Amino acid sequence: MYRRQADLRKFFNYLHSNKIAISKISHKTVIGFLGTIITLSDYAVEHHRRTVSLFLQFLFHNGYVSEDYSLNMPAKRSLRKNPLPSVWEREDVDQLLSAVDRANPMGKRDYAILLLVTKLGLRVGDIRALCLGDIDWENSRLSFIQSKTQKRVDLPLPDDLGWAIIDYLKYGRPKTTIQNVFLTGRTPIMAFSDTSSLSNIIVRYAQMAKIDLSKRKHGMHSLRHTLATRLMEENIPISTIANILGHTSTDTVKKYLQVDMHHLRDCALDVEVLL
Description:
The chain is mainly α. The chain contains 14 helices and 3 strands.
């Protein structure tokens, strides 16, 4: 009861500060209040959300408001702002790639996979599904149907990536009729499962390179974020970055503006002028 009362006091204070009477509460009012608490812990946000929901039910059933606004309460997840993309430092990416032992079959495979992400930003699902027929060696291009969007994407094949794939195909990939480019390293030899995140590849070589992963996201997706951020820093048009990453909308790419420190500095105001 004490906790519910404390939550409601915050809600009442919000109503008072915005001069909103109980009878004038609306869906917009609820959204506005919840927006003031999104910085709290997940548990606290959900507790406030539940308390306000119960109070809205009480108001409706007792005739204080004409509509039960608790029925349209936003989900906790929708209240959270999108987190900042996780971006690697250039030096860390170089160290990660340098840690790969390209003298053994698994190292040849892992190096090619890491280049596919760091150079072209391929999603894990597309790496798993990439087939031998998707590589146009004559024109140095990759062409495949994206697993997420089901749309065909056509990408240039950089020389270092092309040679890395060739090295794996000739000297690392097991002899098999399986058409997937990348296969598991242990018997039974097969394509990667649909649930394989391949993140263990990053963890393995990050540990070898003594890269601290404790304070950053370190899945394959973080390397996609890094590529997008670097391209933005190099003034590559957002539409081009969206095509490279396989995004259907440029709005998805704009989130990388939040971590583009080079261009964010251009937005800084002159303190002397302000004074």
